[in-house]
Specification:
heterodimer, A: 322 residues, mainly beta, 6-stranded antiparallel β-sheet, 1 helix, 5% helix, globular, B: 312 residues, 7-stranded antiparallel β-sheet, 5-stranded antiparallel β-sheet, 23 strands, 41% strand
Chain lengths: 322, 312
């Protein structure tokens, strides 16, 4: 009993260790427009006291390494056309989302639009949808077989101009130690199979390659001129099973048996490693708009309707012109 | 009643057949007769490998005389022992002979430190040492090749990154599963082989064994071993001790069986450097005891996350 108590005290002290560590710290996150939800590139992110800074990339993602983290330092976000924003690092959370407000001095946008063409975002989700809060249910979708989601356009022959995908940032659970930002995967645009109603002919394939920890990724496909002949169509994510996409998880295996000279031995709490393949997608739903997505799983060579993630939807959207 | 006895006798025969013979072997030093701990015993074709415990004992079940395979016993400072499996059926003790000469280098004063193959801990995301869907990890050692400007340098320290889920300095990846991270392993230092250009002879005949229970970074101070590198290239290898202490599982999807398959796995898993070099510098010792370039993570994984401090 005493040994057990000591073990718990030791574990407790181990848990406290990071609190006393003031080594290198990395601040990262994404910056978006508070109204349009569009990622803002070129935002200057500065640690005011340490006087180090970086800029957001095309996904609005930044990663800023602090060599001497000070408790009362502040992260400042500045960008032409937007109000500056300051975030004390005491309020920083890993993979923070910053929504910048456009400033009054911003030039009025000039929109040239062909009124005959309408734009609609199907399967729309927001940055907030893909991050877990009290009102949001978020699950990690880690598959090894392709997963397709059904979209319904107002009419046939729409043109696909953009695909957005929500990605789970790691570590999301204790069993994943590493944040593997690098991944490659395929996104297929597929017509509806008239016989099965499931995914049919592949119309277009996008080779996706991610190199940062953005949780929202936009793929501009407007230049690929993808015409979808049917109103119903699918976007399918295909995982690539290769070493590049590997990420190792651990679980606690109940026991491991062993026979030695002394006889039978049993190792309790052996580790069990399991390799998963990136990207980890997001299943989301909130209390107000809980609407499951229509999803198909590829089993062997055929697509099968799945209710595996219900009542959640897959964070995957398609923007079309029609 | 007679029928019942016959039935029981039949079952008895079945049970007798099911019970396999267990062959027990003792690995001992040929001179002292003392058991040799941590000897790697590999059955080549079956792709099985274990490491003996402190008692130097290993067991092979079944009728050895009918088995067509080869056993290799290997441990540092001893001459490797290779024998057909069926020839073991008449033996219970295997005597290994030590290498004759111990390497003793003269102490020389060096001035300048240089760090080779530096890596950023935070960027290490890939690890070797775990079975995956694409390949089983069937290796006894992994070695990193280093290059120096001139021969005669002094190897001072190495630092490597291994897979750990417990706390680490300035890291927030601590979990309640910290006790799963424990491992012990050996470090081997090799000269370059003039023929294969892979790892050759041992440059340190003393055993360098490391134990680590938490954290991903392992630094090994090699000063006391007085290791002098005779050529302009050398290797530092991690040798797995495939014993009870390091044992765990790894589970991967088997496309032939079309299901997840759980197999024994031994700690540690070694990090792959995120920096891609111009050439592949990782070598692996397979179950046949052959050093081969380790290209599993190619084209991006050319180096292990293992740095070395040398002195000129």
């Amino acid at each position: 009993m005493i040994r057990l108590t000591y073990r718990y005290i030791l574990l407790f002290l181990i848990y406290l260790l990071p609190t006393f560590c003031f080594g290198q710290v990395v601040y990262d996150g994404q910056v978006i427009n508070s109204v349009t939800d569009i990622a803002i590139q070129g935002v200057t992110v500065t640690l005011l006291k340490e006087k180090t800074g970086t800029q957001t990339n095309e996904n609005g993602y930044f990663s800023l390494e602090s060599e001497r983290p000070a408790k009362n330092d502040t992260l400042q976000f500045t960008c032409v056309g937007y109000k500056p924003f300051k975030l004390p690092i005491s309020a920083y959370l890993p993979h923070v989302l910053i929504a910048l407000q456009a400033s009054n001095t911003q030039l009025n946008e000039v929109v040239i639009n062909n009124k005959k063409v309408k734009t609609i975002k199907l399967g729309r989700f927001s940055y907030y949808d893909i991050h877990s809060t009290a009102r949001h249910q978020v699950v990690l979708i880690k598959q090894r077989t392709p997963l397709a989601k059904l979209f319904t356009a107002p009419k046939a022959n729409a043109i696909l101009i953009d695909i957005a995908i929500g990605r789970m940032d790691l570590p999301t659970s204790p069993s994943f130690a590493i944040r593997n930002k690098f991944t490659t995967f395929l996104i297929h645009v597929m017509a509806e199979d008239p016989a099965t109603g499931g995914p049919g002919k592949i119309l277009f394939t996008k080779n996706a390659s991610l190199t940062d920890n953005s949780t929202w990724i936009d793929f501009d496909v407007s230049k690929d001129y993808i015409v979808i002949p049917t109103a119903n169509f699918f976007l399918a994510v295909e995982w690539m099973i290769n070493p590049y996409n590997e990420i190792i998880g651990v679980s606690n295996s109940p026991k491991l048996d062993w026979i030695t000279r002394r006889g039978y031995q049993m190792l309790k709490d052996a580790s069990e490693y399991r390799v998963y393949y990136q990207p980890f997608l997001v299943g989301y739903g909130n209390e107000d708009t809980l609407k499951p997505g229509v999803l198909y799983n590829k089993v062997g060579n055929s697509w099968q309707y799945t209710q595996q993630y219900e009542p959640l939807d897959l964070a995957l959207s398609a923007t079309i012109h029609y | 009643m007679k029928k019942l006895i016959t039935l029981i006798a039949c079952f008895g025969t079945l049970f007798a057949n099911a019970q396999q013979k267990m062959n027990v072997f003792y690995v001992v030093d040929s001179l002292s007769g003392k058991p040799i701990p941590s000897t790697t015993v590999t059955i080549v074709r079956a792709k099985l490998s274990i490491t003996t415990e402190k008692d130097g004992i290993f067991k092979i079940p079944g009728d050895l005389s009918a088995m067509r395979d080869t056993v290799i016993l290997n441990t540092q400072t001893y001459i490797p022992f290779k024998i057909p499996l069926d020839m073991l059926s008449d033996m219970d003790t295997i005597r290994l002979t030590r290498y004759g000469t111990e390497i003793k280098n003269e102490k020389i004063k060096y001035k300048d430190d240089t760090l080779l193959n530096d890596y950023k801990k935070r960027d290490v995301v890939h690890y070797a040492g775990v079975n995956t869907e694409t390949a089983n990890f069937e290796y006894l050692q992994l070695a990193q090749q280093y290059y120096t400007n001139r021969p005669g340098i002094f190897l001072k320290e190495i630092t490597l990154n291994r897979l750990a889920f417990g706390p680490d300095d300035s890291d927030h990846t601590w979990t309640g599963l910290v006790f799963l991270d424990r491992t012990k392993f050996r470090i081997r230092i090799y000269d370059i082989d003039p023929v294969t250009h892979g790892p050759g002879r041992d440059l340190c005949t003393r055993i360098i064994e490391e134990k680590k229970s938490m954290g991903s970074q392992v630094s090994v101070n090699l000063k006391k071993y007085n290791i002098i590198i005779p050529n302009t290239s050398f290797f530092v290898a991690v040798e797995w001790l495939r014993d009870f202490y390091n044992a765990g599982y790894s589970t991967a999807y088997d496309s032939k069986q079309k299901k997840m398959v759980r197999q024994p796995n031994y700690h540690p898993a070694i990090g792959i450097s995120a920096t891609t070099g111009e050439r592949l510098n990782i070598w692996a010792l397979n179950f046949k005891h052959e050093w081969k370039p380790y290209g599993y993570f190619m084209p991006f994984g050319t180096d292990l996350a293992m740095s070395a401090v040398i002195k000129y």
